[in-house]
Design brief:
This protein is 42% helix and 19% strand. By secondary structure, the chain is of the alpha/beta class. It has two domains: 14-123 and 279-289, Aldehyde Oxidoreductase, domain 3, CATH 3.90.1170; 130-276, Alpha-Beta Barrel (TIM Barrel). Strand 8, helix 8 and strand 9 (223-227) form a beta-alpha-beta unit. The longest helix is centred in the middle third of the chain and has 31 residues, at 101-131.
């Protein structure tokens, strides 16, 4: 009997969300708080706001937006109309926010910053994922993220249908060209990594020639990153591999090239573009009194 795997939606721990958003609010509030709202709006005034997508795309970051309003004022009510990972059309209502007007406005920018940035990453990732959906390959992000935002940016990638590479320097061994140069060669680097790593730690090696790849096959890494190889070299590497190692292609990955790279037979395609070059998704907040 074949068991079909359930794909659960990604989730972020509430504690991680609160810490991130709290720091962002403190940065925005500065030393005196929202002096504009305090100067122009009475403390008793109530407001209802609508968060609306002005562009179509994949939503990510609703948890962060909700936390921004809640941390400013726990009495604010947020009613989400979509979930992270949902695809929305332009004009879609994402959420309604109601409460003390000053508080709603004070949280607005931080809430929208997270929602627009993360939804942009999710939407851009989805375009790459859709371009290779006819192949076995998956698009994956890298450690090229904005400092302090790695966990939430990688979360957004998963909302868009991508996968995550290692989160940091401590959860997998990735032997790159500089490690190889200093350690004395591919085989030497892999041998030392095997002696050092625990049994649950994967070892990946980056190569840019087929000769180096042959050494990786002989030494026995878990994953090989084929860096900046042309399509012909990628196909040859797949043929040499015969299914032994997980193969990851990287370098010159764009929406125009990703399908052809995937069609060579590699397992993963890593690109920093989905985190570092994703345009934001335009999302606005319109507010009314009462």
């Amino acid at each position: 009997m074949t068991i079909k795997a359930t794909r659960y939606l990604p989730e972020l721990p509430p504690l991680l969300i609160e810490g991130q958003v709290r720091a962002a609010l403190i940065e925005d509030l500065g030393r005196a708080g929202d002096i504009t709202s305090n100067a122009t709006i009475g403390p008793e005034m109530l407001a209802t706001a609508r968060l609306t997508a002005r562009d179509g795309g994949i939503i990510a970051g609703l948890q962060m937006a909700e936390a921004a309003f809640r941390l400013i004022d726990p009495s604010i009510r947020v009613s989400a109309h979509v979930r992270d990972g949902d695809r929305v059309a332009p004009g879609a209502l994402l959420a309604e926010v109601s409460g003390v007007a000053r508080a709603v406005l004070s949280a607005e920018r931080v809430a929208l910053n997270y929602l627009m940035h993360l939804s942009g990453i999710a939407s851009y990732t989805a375009r790459f994922a859709e371009a290779i959906a006819h192949t076995r390959a998956r698009v994956t992000c890298t450690r090229k993220t904005i400092p302090g935002l790695r966990a939430v940016e990688k979360y957004a990638v998963r909302c868009g249908g991508g996968s995550s590479h290692r989160y940091g320097l401590d959860d997998a061994i990735l032997i790159k060209d500089n490690h190889i140069a200093v350690s004395g060669g591919v085989v030497e680097a892999i041998t030392r990594a095997r002696a050092f790593a625990g049994h649950l730690v994967k070892i990946e090696v980056e190569v840019d020639t087929l000769a180096q790849f042959a050494q990786v096959l002989e030494a026995g890494a878990d994953v090989c990153l084929l860096d900046n190889m042309g399509l012909g070299m990628l196909r040859e590497a797949v043929a040499m591999n015969k299914g032994r190692l997980t193969l990851e292609a990287s370098g010159n990955v764009t929406l125009d090239t990703v399908a052809a790279i995937a069609e060579t037979g590699v397992d993963f395609i890593s690109t920093s573009k989905i985190t570092m070059a994703a345009p934001t998704l335009d999302i606005g907040m319109d507010i009314g009194i009462g």
